[in-house]
Amino acid sequence: YLGEEFDENSMRNNMTLIYELMDETMDFGYPQNCAVDVLRLYINLGNIKPQDEPEPEQLTKQITGAIDWRREGIRYKKNEVYIDVLESVNLLISSSGSILRSEVTGRVQMNTKLTGMPECKFGLNDKLVIEKESTAGRKKSGVEIDDCTFHRCVRLGKFDADRTITFIPPDGEFELMRYRVNDNVNLPFRLIPAVQEEGQTKASINLKVIANFSEKLFATHVVIKVPVPKNTSKSKIKNSFGRAKYEPEQNAIVWRIKRFPGKAECMLSVDLELVRTVRPKAWVRPPINVEFQVPMFTASGVHVRFLRVYDKSGYQTNRWVRYITKAGGYQVRI
Predict the structure, then answer these.
(1) What is the pLDDT of residues 256-265, one digit of tens each?
(2) Contact at 8 Å (CB) between 70 and 169?
(3) Is the pLDDT at 314 greater than 80, yes or no?
(4) Whole-angstrom Cα distance, residue 187 to residue 175?
(5) Which residues contact 41 (CB under 8 A, 6 or more apart)?
(6) Contact in structure between 331 and 297 (CB atoms under 8 Å)
(7) pLDDT digits (tens, 9 = 90+) for 136-195
């Protein structure tokens, strides 16, 4: 309503709007109606453009109804659902190579273009569900999913009872759920660093990077920041592919690789010349930082098993699923 950036003056100028929003969203201090799509129907001040005036009966029904996040009468020529499983990998490896911390935080983003008031049933390869479904003879592996949080359209009672995710989706884009996975994390990259300091004037760094994902996949926007001492004067860099250069403002060799194929190995070799300092000070070695993006790969092993759409008319629904894994805090100590 007030735009992305607002200050004290814009709040002073829009006090009427703020009072109106507070009046609708709170009732005696209790949250009442916080659905932005519903508020837009009858509060058209600020940056919100007036929409077509809905029928008073329909408006009252939506405000007071149990499903205030979706209005009735939505129609689409093509019924489609887009699902994005977005994961962030957090890793910390000690200088000896042991894993100190590894976890994956993920979220399921959806974009629904569905007619009417459909009910959806969504299934992941959740370990508890798969163990329940699998017979004694056939055992399938699942993923232990922790800390699930859901959009308010999800029926939590059904999830608590039998771990099924059922909901009537909002129209358009929304975040269905967030989750965390701590066990059996598939690390996309393995880094093997070797650092050697020769007196006060020379140092050498060798780094081997191995992609652990399938050769059919590839990582994009790979950036590896290898720290160097602050008193570095010259650097001689050799790398198998990509572009690497010394960036003094970051006190690091920054190695950029646009496209890193799966199962590939690459090497970085750096010879450093250091300036002598008046008071010799031991180099506090910061960790190597890695940034990347791997499409169609999940570090947690989570994948979408099914999305079923139930509607009175029984229409066909097209579904698209996309997986993207990014680096969160991906660090290797040297």
Answers:
(1) 999 999 999 9
(2) yes
(3) yes
(4) 25
(5) 51, 54, 59, 62
(6) no
(7) 445 567 889 988 999 989 999 888 888 889 999 999 999 999 999 998 999 999 999 999
Residue 57 has a pLDDT of 53
- What number of CA atoms fall less than 13 Å from residue 225's CA on the CB side? 17
pLDDT of 92 reads: 96
Residues 6+ apart with CB under 8 A from 295: 217, 220, 322, 323, 324
Cβ distance 79 to 316 under 8 Å?
yes
Q: Which residue has the higher pLDDT, 16 or 46?
A: 16
The partner residues of 205 in beta bridges, in order of sequence, read 195, 270
d(CA 87, CA 92): 17
Q: How far apart are CA 119 and CA 321, in angstroms?
A: 19
Residues 6+ apart with CB under 8 A from 53: none
Q: Please give the backbone phi and psi of residue 21, each rounded to the nearest 5 degrees, phi first.
A: -65, -40
Quote the CA–CA distance of 63 and 68 in Å, as a whole number: 6
Measured distance CA(241)–CA(260) in Å, rounded = 9
**Do residues 294 and 219 touch, judged by C-beta distance below 8 A?**
yes
Contact 26, 32 (CB under 8 A): yes
